[in-house]
């Protein structure tokens, strides 16, 4: 089975190059790259005027299976990924039961192989049931295929326990992904604490709820030598702390979500529950800081924190609504509209943060267009303008704050292991 | 002119002209309350549904009387707080109300944004009778009415709001209302009970209670809830009373003819000394009467009233 | 701009009508004992004041004058998209047991008077209510008649009667006009 991608502008972050060339895929691998490639009788995909990149990787999604299949399944979530241009996702362990042992990790991998439209790699829990009490069997989970460890939305509040988890993860050579939130500081909060929380009368989550935990986790990573990845950075304080840590050689990486670089707490006006997300949408100064962090390399990765919920769960009073929004199908549009079109990032920088950087944090041999690499490819049309319509999403969740937003830049095709799984919005 | 919005959810977005219209319409309504026969046929055949997810006899009765004086039929739905915590309550209630064909819905709810949510769900006008710590616009309007009636104006007055601003919907609505009408609003309370960035709302946060009170024309004293102490937000009622309670001595800092207001119910001897609550400067009882008049005006205007229209003889 | 078809009364005509009505009121009620005048907003109010002046000139005694706002009593509120501005009713005396003279500028369908009767009844129980109008233009929709009439003006239903008074409009006159469209 062969596929020839012709005429596109190829962005290869591993090589650090943007050149016009053709790519021939064969047997699920990249067979050849070069100008004016031709091969008799193979299917040709015309990528003229489009960008050809390694398959995008979203290292922070919630596929909800097992346990919360009404919100999303591996089947629906990986289709959302395909439609959003992602060939690989890493899914968080807050399923039911929690992915805190080898059996669940193996189950998720099996389901992903059987039902997934794209590659899905499970992230294991740090502690049993993510309760923050006892270490989960991280070694077993690594054997079963876990690519990192995180308790995500249930951050380990006990610093001593997290320290031991870091020592253990270091031994296993895997990364700890930290959702930085001091639950005592954030308790009961529904949005960013500031002018908008005052006006709306909603309990606020202060920026320091994130900052103090980023500081703590960096210090523990520095001491233990464990690789630490800070999930969904939302504050200027976090960016500052991570920048300083990197400067002194701490093995810390960080991600930001499209909603945290696109929206501020002003979006909460009107109490649209699709703006309720954790960490919360912050201020314009915070947005500027994360964009600066993206530009100067402090923030390595763009990840969506795709968190689908049912309409019924979100259609309640703001305080009662669950945190989270769906991001897979709007990510590329937001990256191009908010970062590339504005000049905050070059296309190469943006693609780097969506491919090779997350691949290297998770230890995946992906995110490159070198010969013999996996034939995972995303083709993006950077010029097309489109309007976000949740009814057209392939995923189950409709909880997006971007409904009706006009975006520029859309994935044109998603190719996984040499096979076109999405073309022009249609999933095959 | 009439009101431009379908609902009254808060004062934040109500234009000054419409606030004036409501206050002006409340003047003839107050005259009706003072009559022997307190009833006009204006809203005959209309139904006003009050939905209270929090017990508040005072506000509910005020709205019910307002509706009855205008000859509307009233129904109260007292929804338990248990159904709210399940998260089913409001949506189900909204569907029921829509099916019953209520003409106006008055909602009290412990969560901010509940009135916005109800207003989006149903076609009938919604009056927010207090949603969490968000807004309580009819209370602020009756405060404005009371002050305007007593002082003859609102512009240029100095209004001090004292107490738990953080959790107070009355404070928020008062800040919007008084600043829109040209008054100066000063805030004072325990540092842990002051919300962020109130200066962007147009209010002045004072460094001390003395600064807030000095020369004030109006002192609006908020209720301090014991519950906040249990949540660790302030050390205790005794100390609160020492630091922020309005007594005769503190009252002397204000203008000699300053009005003392309280949205009720009062904790006498805590945030307000009994001699201040019952003193000559207190207009707390007047506020209750004016509440009915202002709510009559709101019911009238939200059912379409206020358009100047020459009558046919 | 409305088109005036004919002027029915000028300043002098209005004055003479009111003087005659004042005499008729005194005569019919055998004096002014217990008499009160209540003008219906807006133009009934200055007319009531003027009648009170005339009565004082004739009888030498002051008759109490009140102003009635009937907005909240209108029967067309539910059919109007927007409701009229409510103004205050200012009747600083009890009406129970009184001879109430309602005063308005024009009587047409009778609906305003119906509303005014309800409004007055809600204030108390008058001994009698009589009605004085400057112009009766016919076309009644209710069994209501006026006791004192300045001028009967037969009109078509397309026409309208406009009363202008110095206190409100800066001039005194009554005209018939046809509204455009």
Task: Walk me through the structure.
The complex is a heterotrimer of chains A (428), B (313) and C (181). By secondary structure, chain A is an alpha/beta fold. Chain A has helices spanning 74-83, 102-115, 138-144, 159-172, 183-186, 195-200, 208-224, 236-247, 258-262, 284-296, 311-314, 331-340, 347-354, 356-362; strands spanning 2-12, 17-26, 29-34, 43-46, 51-54, 56-61, 86-91, 119-122, 148-149, 175-178, 191-192, 204-205, 228-230, 252-256, 301-302, 377-387, 406-416, 419-423, 426-427. Chain B is globular. In chain B, helix 6 (137-151) packs across helix 7. The two termini of chain B are 21 Å apart. Chain B is α/β, with parallel strands linked by helices. With 181 residues, chain C is of the alpha/beta class. Chain C has one domain: 3-Layer(aba) Sandwich (Rossmann fold), CATH 3.40.50.2020. Chain C has four helices and eight strands; from the N terminus they run βαβαββαβββαβ. The longest helix of chain C has 18 residues, at 11-28. The N and C termini of chain C lie close together (11 Å). Chains in contact: A-B, B-C.
Overview in brief:
The complex is a heterotrimer of chains A (428), B (313) and C (181). Chain A has 14 helices and 19 strands.
Strand content of chain B: 5-15%
The main sheet of chain B orders its strands as: 7-6-5-8-9
Distance between the termini of chain A: 16 Å
Largest interface: B-C, 33 and 31 residues
Helix-strand layout with pairing:
The complex is a heterotrimer of chains A (428), B (313) and C (181).
Chain A: E1 2-12, E2 17-26, E3 29-34, E4 43-46, E5 51-54, E6 56-61, H1 74-83, E7 86-91, H2 102-115, E8 119-122, H3 138-144, E9 148-149, H4 159-172, E10 175-178, H5 183-186, E11 191-192, H6 195-200, E12 204-205, H7 208-224, E13 228-230, H8 236-247, E14 252-256, H9 258-262, H10 284-296, E15 301-302, H11 311-314, H12 331-340, H13 347-354, H14 356-362, E16 377-387, E17 406-416, E18 419-423, E19 426-427
Parallel strand pairs in A: 1-4, 1-5, 6-7, 7-8, 9-10, 10-13, 11-12, 13-14, 14-15
Antiparallel strand pairs in A: 1-2, 2-3, 5-16, 16-17, 17-18, 18-19
Chain B: H1 16-33, E1 47-52, H2 57-69, E2 73-78, H3 81-86, H4 89-100, E3 104-109, H5 114-121, E4 126-131, H6 137-151, E5 158-162, H7 169-180, E6 184-188, E7 204-205, H8 209-213, E8 218-221, H9 226-230, H10 237-244, H11 248-251, E9 259-261, H12 274-277, H13 284-302
Parallel strand pairs in B: 1-2, 1-3, 3-4, 5-6, 5-8, 6-7, 8-9
Helix pairs in contact in B: 1-6, 1-13, 2-13, 6-7, 6-13
Chain C: E1 3-9, H1 11-28, E2 35-40, H2 44-59, E3 65-68, E4 99-107, H3 111-123, E5 128-136, E6 148-152, E7 160-164, H4 166-169, E8 173-178
Helix pairs in contact in C: 1-2
């Amino acid at each position: 089975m062969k596929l020839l991608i012709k005429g596109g502008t190829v962005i290869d972050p591993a090589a650090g190059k943007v050149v016009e060339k053709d790519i021939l895929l064969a047997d699920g691998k990249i067979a050849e790259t070069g100008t004016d490639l031709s091969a008799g009788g193979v299917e040709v995909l015309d990528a003229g005027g489009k960008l050809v990149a390694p398959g995008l990787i979203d290292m922070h999604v919630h596929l909800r299976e097992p346990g919360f299949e009404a919100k999303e399944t591996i089947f629906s979530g990986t289709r959302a990924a395909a439609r959003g241009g992602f060939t690989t996702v890493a899914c968080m362990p807050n399923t039911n039961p929690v992915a805190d042992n080898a059996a669940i990790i193996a189950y998720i991998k099996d389901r992903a192989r059987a039902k997934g439209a794209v590659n899905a790699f499970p992230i294991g829990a740090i502690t049993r049931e993510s309760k923050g009490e006892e270490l989960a069997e991280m070694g077993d989970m690594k054997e079963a295929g876990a690519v990192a460890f995180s308790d995500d939305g249930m951050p380990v509040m006990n610093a001593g326990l997290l320290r031991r988890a870091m020592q253990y993860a270091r031994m296993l050579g895997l990364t700890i992904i930290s959702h930085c939130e001091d639950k005592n500081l954030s308790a009961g909060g529904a949005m960013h604490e500031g002018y908008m929380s005052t006006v709306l009368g909603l309990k606020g989550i202060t920026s320091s709820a994130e900052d103090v935990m980023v500081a703590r986790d960096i210090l523990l990573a520095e001491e233990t030598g464990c690789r630490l990845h800070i999930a969904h950075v939302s504050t200027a304080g976090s960016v500052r702390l991570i920048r300083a840590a990197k400067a002194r050689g701490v093995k810390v990486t960080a991600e930001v979500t499209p909603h945290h670089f696109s929206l501020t707490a002003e979006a909460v006006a009107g109490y649209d529950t699709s703006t309720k997300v954790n960490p919360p949408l912050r201020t314009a100064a915070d947005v500027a800081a994360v964009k600066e962090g993206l530009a100067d390399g402090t923030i390595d990765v763009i990840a969506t924190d795709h968190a689908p919920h049912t309409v019924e769960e979100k259609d309640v009073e703001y305080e009662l609504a669950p945190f989270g929004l769906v991001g897979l199908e709007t990510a590329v549009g937001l990256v191009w509209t908010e970062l590339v079109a504005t000049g905050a990032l070059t296309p190469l920088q943006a693609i780097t943060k969506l491919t090779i950087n997350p691949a290297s944090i998770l230890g995946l041999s992906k995110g490159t267009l070198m010969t013999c690499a996996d034939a995972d490819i995303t083709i993006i049309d950077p010029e097309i303008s489109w309007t976000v319509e949740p009814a057209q999403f392939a995923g189950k969740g409709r909880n997006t704050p971007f409904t009706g937003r006009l975006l520029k830049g859309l994935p044109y095709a998603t190719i996984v292991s040499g096979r076109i799984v999405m073309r022009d919005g249609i999933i095959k | 002119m009439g009101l431009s919005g379908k609902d009254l959810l808060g004062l934040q977005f109500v234009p000054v002209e419409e606030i004036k219209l409501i206050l002006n319409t409340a003047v003839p309504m107050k005259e009706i309350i003072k009559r022997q026969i307190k009833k006009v046929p204006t809203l005959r055949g209309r139904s006003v549904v009050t939905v209270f997810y929090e017990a508040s006899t005072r506000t509910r009765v005020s709205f019910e009387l307002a509706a009855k004086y205008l000859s509307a039929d009233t129904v109260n739905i007292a929804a338990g707080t248990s159904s709210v915590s399940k998260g089913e309550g409001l949506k189900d209630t909204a569907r029921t109300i829509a099916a019953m064909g209520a003409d106006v819905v008055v909602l009290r709810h412990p969560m901010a944004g509940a009135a916005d949510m109800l207003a989006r769900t149903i076609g009938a006008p919604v009056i927010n009778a207090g949603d969490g710590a968000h807004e309580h616009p009819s209370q602020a309007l009756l405060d404005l009415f009371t002050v305007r009636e007593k002082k003859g104006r609102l512009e240029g007055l100095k209004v001090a709001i004292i107490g738990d601003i953080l959790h107070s919907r009355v404070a928020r609505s008062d800040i919007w209302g008084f600043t829109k009408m040209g008054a100066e609003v000063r805030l004072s309370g325990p540092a842990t009970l002051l919300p962020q960035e109130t200066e962007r709302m147009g209010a002045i946060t004072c460094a001390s209670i003395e600064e807030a009170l000095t020369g004030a024309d109006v002192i609006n004293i908020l209720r301090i809830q014991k519950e906040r102490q249990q949540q660790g937000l302030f050390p205790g009622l005794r100390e609160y009373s020492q630091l922020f309670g309005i007594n005769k001595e503190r009252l002397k800092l204000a203008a000699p003819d300053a009005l003392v207001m309280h949205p009720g119910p009062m904790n006498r001897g805590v945030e307000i000394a009994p001699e201040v609550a019952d003193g000559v400067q207190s207009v707390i009882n007047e506020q209750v009467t004016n509440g009915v008049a202002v709510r009559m005006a709101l019911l009238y205007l939200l059912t379409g009233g206020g358009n100047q229209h020459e009558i046919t003889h | 701009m409305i088109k005036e078809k004919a002027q029915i009364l000028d300043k002098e005509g209005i004055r003479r009508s009111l003087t005659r009505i004042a005499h008729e009121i005194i005569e019919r009620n055998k004096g002014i004992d217990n008499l009160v005048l209540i003008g219906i907003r807006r133009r009934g109010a200055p007319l009531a004041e003027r009648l009170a002046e005339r009565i004082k000139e004739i009888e030498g005694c002051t008759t109490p004058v009140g102003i009635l706002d009937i907005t909240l009593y209108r029967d067309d509120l539910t059919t109007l998209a927007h409701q009229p501005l409510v103004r205050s009713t200012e009747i600083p005396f009890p009406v129970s047991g009184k001879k109430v003279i309602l005063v308005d500028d024009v009587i047409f369908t009778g609906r305003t008077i119906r509303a005014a009767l309800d409004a007055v009844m809600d204030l108390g129980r008058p001994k009698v209510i009589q009605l004085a109008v400057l112009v009766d233009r016919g076309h009644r929709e209710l069994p209501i008649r006026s006791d004192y009439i300045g001028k009967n003006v037969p009109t078509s239903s397309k026409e309208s009667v406009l009363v202008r008074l110095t206190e409100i409009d800066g001039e005194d006159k009554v005209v018939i006009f046809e509204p455009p469209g």
